[in-house]
Amino acid sequence: MKTNRNSFIGVFDSGVGGLTLLPALQFILPHEQFLYVSDDAHAPYGGKSKEEITERCNIVVQSLIDKGCKIIIVACNTATTNAIETLRATYSIPFIGIEPAIKPAALKSKTKVVGVLATQGTLSSALFAKTSAAFTQDILVIEQIGSGLVEAIETGSLDNPKLTKLVRSYINPMLEQEMDTLVLGCTHYPFLLPLLKKILPSNIQIIDSAEAVAKQTHRILEKNQLICQTKETGNIRYFSSAKNSTLMRFIPKETEILSLTSNLF
Ligand code: DGL
Q1: Strand bridging mode 8-13 / 34-38
Q2: Ligand 1 site, residue 61, Cβ cutoff 6 A
Q3: Over the stretch 167-226, which tens digit does the pLDDT of each residue have?
Q4: Which of 30, 78, 232, 234 is buried deepest, with most CB atoms within 10 A?
């Protein structure tokens, strides 16, 4: 489909995680129209192979292109680290990805111990290994797979004893090794910020990539002369691959959630 400056910005994740990027995106790009896809019929991506993740990304991306997107934000660390190279090689529109913010964390850490909480798919990816090696020569990086966190967050219950125990079991070993900076390497995890702030000592810095992604999206839109020209406030439309999407636990009541396969035109 032919697109122009006023076409949509596509945003997708395996589930509700990418929603944590939307406030920063809407703040920096208030007039843009967003299409958000939750691929929750196939979530989580974290334990899937690179091939499986790439296959899902291709399906979601093709559907966003069919809906008329001018740019796509891969709002999922697991999808970015496993599939963005293939996506960029396959489609001609620009892609913005998200990766664990290791570089800013390494620069901020005083103890030189950085914790990275992310999915198995992200931590085992070649892209993560490359970024980590490039910026952490003098840093101890403690990698922790957040098993079960994405599934727990998708339920919408973000503060309960079971989840607190699970989060503590991941965080405490990092604290014992004097971590002072924690990287949230999965877009679902910012939903745990209130819980993390209760658990973590106040000197621990928590880093996520939402603002960096929003700024990068602005830069790329500007570079490609794709910033929209309208002055009205933009909105977000939601799509899901699941019948009963977990999105409805996270977005305002009565908001319509369309099927991933539905077309806008
Ligand atoms: N939000 C995705 C990420 O950033 C979650 C991955 C998953 O579905 O396991 O990695």
Answers
A1: parallel
A2: no
A3: 999 999 999 999 999 999 999 999 999 999 999 999 999 999 999 999 999 999 999 999
A4: 78
186 lines ligand 1 (CB under 6 A): yes
Mean pLDDT of the chain, nearest integer: 97
Q: Which atom of ligand 1 is nearest to the CA of 188?
A: 1
Q: In terms of C-beta density within 10 A (0-12 exposed, 13-18 middle, 19 or more buried), how is residue 258 classed?
A: middle
Tokens matching residue 63: 């559907």
8 A C-beta contact, residue 37 and residue 10: yes
User: How many whole angstroms separate alpha carbon 228 and alpha carbon 205?
Assistant: 35
Q: Rounded to whole angstroms, how far apart are CA atoms 191 and 16? A: 10
pLDDT at site 265: 66
Ligand 1 touching residue 40 (CB < 6 A): no
Topology of domain 9-98+211-259, per CATH? Answer: Rossmann fold (3.40.50)
Average pLDDT over residues 141-147: 98
- Expressed in angstroms and rounded, the spacing between residue 45 Cα and the centre of ligand 1 is 6
CA contacts within 13 A on the Cβ side of 231: 0
What is the domain partition of the chain in residue ranges?
A: 9-98+211-259, 102-208
